[in-house]
Amino acid sequence: MNRDQLMEVLEQQKVKTVTFEYADGGAVVVTQRGARILGVFPSGEGRSSNAMWVNPHIEALFSGVATDWDGQGEGGMGGGRFWVSPEQNYYYNKDAKTFDGWFCQLPMDPGTYEVTDCSATSVTYRNQFDLHDYLTGSDLKNLSVERSISPLANPLLNTPVWSALKDKVGYVGVATTDDLQLPATSDKAPTLCPWTLVQVPTALGGGPSTVIVPTAKQAQPLGYFGEIPADRLRVFPNYVQYKIDAQLVTKLGILPEDIAPQGNIRIAYLRAVGNADDDSACATPCCKWQLVVLESDSVARDQKDVIDPAKVDPAGPKGAIQSYNSGSTGSAKFGEIEVQHLPVTLTNGVYQTVVNNRLYAFQGAKADVLAIAENLLGLKNIELFG
Question: How far is CA 287 from CA 45, 271, 282, 305, 382, in A?
Answer without folding.
Answer: 16, 10, 5, 42, 18
